[in-house]
Amino acid sequence: MSVDVDKSPADAPPPQPEPIKAIPVRHYGRWVAAIVVIGLVALLGRAFASGNVNWDAIPEYMFNADILKGLRNTLLITVLSMIIGVVLGVILAVMRQSKNPVTSTVAWFYVWFFRGTPVYVQLFLWFNLGLVFQYIDIMPIYKDEWSDFMTPFLCALLGLGLNEAAYMAEICRAGLNAVDEGQTEAAHALGMSHAKTLRRIVVPQAMRVIVPPTGNEVINMLKTSSLVIAVQYYDLLQAAQNVGRDSGVVVEMLILAAVWYLIATTVLSIGQYYLERYYARGSSRQLPLTPLQRAKSKLSGGFNRPGGMG
């Protein structure tokens, strides 16, 4: 004989909550913005497609000897100007940090002058200093007429390099100030000299702050180098204008120059990315994957997925 025992409410299983039905928020503004942008891009593409542009001339002159010579000169003046800017900028930054009032004042005045005047004006100033100085006379070393000494290359190099040094001085000074003063005090307590402390302790830590804006300055220098056409230096823009004038495809050669500038800046941007990643090792516990590593991980994940390829 079985006896039914009523279960108390406490023994009954708790009621299961109903599953949550998440309804995504509709972002109509995103769709409208996407449609507007696509429409504008289509109109821009249609305008260039219907314009009187000889697009075949761009690949035809892509590797023209004059264009490549101008590109080589542009890269050369960019690299040399950045070397002058970085070296002199580090010296000026250290001078600004000095407790000697003379050196700190001179460094401040340098930064004030070269940052306060346009680089275009500075290029013309170097180019026309022959009106003031007929000769350059470094008595035991060199003496020559100013017009023979100040070539377009040297004028472009001084104009760009000295101007860049003012900006690099502030970038380096910001990087040096970002290092905790306790690092310097500890190094001095160990008997390290000021110069050795800068070289072994401060500068390696400051590089993490200095590298990103320096990479931007390199890219900016590549584009700013087009101003040297004012002092008759044969760069990429000058080459494109000469080829366009001789061949009758002026606009096409300007587009070609823009393409080469884009290619060069893209390569520099990739180098800047990996350089920043290198100097970020000491501050990040785990570095993010590079685009190539992310692509490889996605491909390997797709191939190893059950039922996938491979």
From TrEMBL:
<dbReference type="Pfam" id="PF00528">
    <property type="entry name" value="BPD_transp_1"/>
</dbReference>
<protein>
    <recommendedName>
        <fullName>Histidine/lysine/arginine/ornithine transport system permease protein HisM</fullName>
    </recommendedName>
</protein>
<dbReference type="InterPro" id="IPR035906">
    <property type="entry name" value="MetI-like_sf"/>
</dbReference>
<dbReference type="InterPro" id="IPR010065">
    <property type="entry name" value="AA_ABC_transptr_permease_3TM"/>
</dbReference>
<keyword id="KW-0812">Transmembrane</keyword>
<feature type="domain" description="ABC transmembrane type-1">
    <location>
        <begin position="71"/>
        <end position="272"/>
    </location>
</feature>
<feature type="transmembrane region" description="Helical">
    <location>
        <begin position="253"/>
        <end position="275"/>
    </location>
</feature>
<keyword id="KW-0813">Transport</keyword>
<dbReference type="InterPro" id="IPR051322">
    <property type="entry name" value="AA_ABC_Transporter_Permease"/>
</dbReference>
<comment type="similarity">
    <text>Belongs to the binding-protein-dependent transport system permease family.</text>
</comment>
<feature type="transmembrane region" description="Helical">
    <location>
        <begin position="31"/>
        <end position="55"/>
    </location>
</feature>
<dbReference type="InterPro" id="IPR000515">
    <property type="entry name" value="MetI-like"/>
</dbReference>
<feature type="transmembrane region" description="Helical">
    <location>
        <begin position="75"/>
        <end position="95"/>
    </location>
</feature>
<comment type="subunit">
    <text>The HisPMQJ complex is composed of two ATP-binding proteins (HisP), two transmembrane proteins (HisM and HisQ) and a solute-binding protein (HisJ). The HisPMQ-ArgT complex is composed of two ATP-binding proteins (HisP), two transmembrane proteins (HisM and HisQ) and a solute-binding protein (ArgT).</text>
</comment>
<keyword id="KW-1003">Cell membrane</keyword>
<feature type="transmembrane region" description="Helical">
    <location>
        <begin position="107"/>
        <end position="127"/>
    </location>
</feature>
<keyword id="KW-1133">Transmembrane helix</keyword>
<keyword id="KW-0472">Membrane</keyword>
